[in-house]
Design a protein that fits this description.
272 residues, alpha/beta, 6-stranded parallel beta sheet, 4-stranded parallel beta sheet, 11 helices, 10 strands, 45% helix, globular, binds D-glutamic acid
């Protein structure tokens, strides 16, 4: 029996995945959503693959208790290293942010030179490169981790000279590589689109994995007939937010990432 009335489950290491949820809500406004931010254990971006796979498995088990019909791994780091293992263990459709971003970048590049920015673990996993090479073996990639972007975004320094200086320093490496496309391979980076575009110049196309992922979620739901009945008797979609540490910071900053007010945030223990 298809579970088309269950919510879409989404997890991230913390708050950044709300950029992905924002796009999912924009693309599929009628779907119930359930978001888990593993705030007690973030950041994932500097942790080992083994640890991130363990956390991702625990997050998925937790969300499955709520009868989710599809899982979105909104965290680039978790998608980069744990998607294969999650798909082996769990039977529901699982969508990560890497494949969608890689597809869009492969479509966008004209000269076959693509830059990837993300956390240390994402860049060193080469997950974006592998995904792009499956589509087009001739694509050349260059990766650069930008670890300071995450705290700068969380601090709200979006349009700030300090952030601009940091971006200039990180992106310098990419500027003389002749890339025409740059993948924003981290949940937080869509908030820095303005600064990144300014540093890279207008000729470089920025790929927002969050937008691409939301389109893929829609396609998969339609294709598997898991999309909710559009006639839900006028019922307002349910939005639930879970975190693993105290919710205060998430509640305060969440609206900036989500682009709308966050409702109640519940603190949960993942141990089942
Ligand atoms: N959510 C992470 C990502 O997209 C960034 C924050 C972290 O390192 O946990 O890679």
């Amino acid at each position: 029996m298809t579970n088309n009335s269950g919510p879409i489950g989404i997890f991230d290491s913390g708050i950044g995945g709300l950029t992905v949820l924002k796009e999912i809500i924009r693309t599929l406004p009628g779907e119930d959503t359930l978001y888990l931010g593993d705030t007690a254990r973030l950041p994932y971006g500097t942790k080992s693959e083994e640890t991130v796979v363990k956390y991702s498995t625990e997050n998925t088990r937790f969300l499955l208790k709520y009868n989710i019909k599809l899982l979105v791994v909104a965290c680039n780091t978790a998608s980069a290293v744990s998607l294969g293992e999650l798909r082996r263990q769990f039977a529901i459709p699982i969508i990560g942010v890497i494949e969608a971003g890689a597809r869009a970048a492969s479509r966008a590049t004209k000269n076959g030179k693509v830059g990837i920015i993300g956390t240390e673990t994402t860049v060193s996993s080469s997950a974006y490169t592998k995904a792009m090479r499956e589509i087009n073996a001739d694509i050349d990639t260059v990766g650069q981790s930008c670890p300071l972007f995450v705290p700068l975004v969380e601090e709200g320094w979006i349009d700030d000279d300090v952030t601009l200086a940091v971006a200039e320093r990180y992106l310098r490496v990419l500027k003389n590589k002749g890339i025409d496309t740059l993948v924003l391979g981290c949940t937080h980076y869509p908030l820095l689109k303005g600064i990144i575009q300014k540093v890279m110049g207008e000729s470089v196309r920025l790929i927002d994995s969050a937008e691409e992922t939301a389109s893929e979620v829609k396609e998969v739901l339609m294709g598997t007939e898991l999309n909710s009945d559009p006639d839900r008797g006028g019922q307002v979609p349910v939005r639930r937010y879970f975190v693993t540490d105290v919710p205060r910071r998430f509640e305060e900053q969440g609206s900036r990432f989500l682009g709308e007010r966050i409702g109640k945030v519940e603190k949960v223990a993942l141990i089942l």
